[in-house]
Design brief:
37% of the residues lie in helices and 17% in strands. By secondary structure, it is of the alpha/beta class.
Amino acid sequence: MKKILDGMVVIDLTRFFSGPQCTLFLAGMGAEVVKIDDPKGGDPIAFAPPFDGPGGISLERKSDQDMGLAYLKRARGKKSVTLDLKSPEGLAIFMEMVKKADVVVENFRAGVATRLGVDYPALRAVNPKIIYCALTGYGSTGPSKDDKAYDLMVQAAVGLMSMTGQPGEPPVKTASALSDAISGVFAAHGIVAALLHRERTGEGQAIDVAMADCLFSLIFDEPFDTYERLNLAQRQGNRIMRFSPFNIFKARDGWVALGAATHEEWLSLLDAMGRTDLKADPDMMQVGWRIVNNDKVDAVVTQWTSARTKDEIVSALFAASVACSPVRTADEVMQWPQLLEREMIVRLKNPLTGRDAAASGPGFPIKFSLTPGSYDTPSPLPGAHSEEIFARLANLSAADVRRLKGGGII
């Protein structure tokens, strides 16, 4: 079956995580994503640790067939060419490609695209219908627009680190690069919306996506600016300040996460724990009191969970319709039938070995009933599609490509 974005040509100038995450989703929905990398340096993550190769997973490149795991995940479903955008001839070839493209995505630092001559005004001049998406740390406007940013700095800048961790402990970031991943999703969403707008009006446009904006827009659902006035610690650990209990609890063989988000769930939890006596306690029946006295509430729950296994706790709370989950390790997650059934854990392939990699990647997360998304091809070798793409999108012959390769343009 065809995919939603079949026929759309996306030129991908991105590197590292946020931009490649965006174009990965577009590829999963059927767009032809063409990665353009510098012929001198290539994609910086293609041969960066950790590696997969004939000897398995390693932090050191042990053979010429070792490739970076991040690249094997983020470049799936894409095509690869190399092109020197800093050379006049390379820039001219790029502009020919833009004439036949639908979307251009870049995640340069603010101002770099303008210096290269590949910013939105330059591209709009050759293709007024182009959709141009720029991802940066802090956006193209504002006093911080020129600041260099990685996920760590963005999590610090928007306050997420000040809220993450246990009360009284130093700030910590989330385990994954959350602002990169989230901004990539927002950018893909914006591009699909802009393509819909173009379908209706014939107009192209520019999209300005900031990692900081995207992360802040999600975390600010939590009213962290009111915590001080409510006499609440800025760091709530695993809790959510609106509910109690809502935490992780020790079991005989590990940890479980459970929570009561409604009064009915709290009553059901008390029934499951055999603590119906607390229904007569006016304090325990008031969520405001429980929030202020979380430690007392958690002690009641811990007394029950600590005497049981994870499976026993999950089974009892499932029957009571109370939200609960074991805290899984990474190895346990990789064996979780739920993710396996939904094809969310898929084997990667290494194009240099021609075999399955010794690691897996995430599957396509949106399940369409008529136009299923997937990453149909493994990550390409850098420059693998140069002759095909340049012939079709830039009108270059095979001889032209060979000449340009010899001159370091391709």
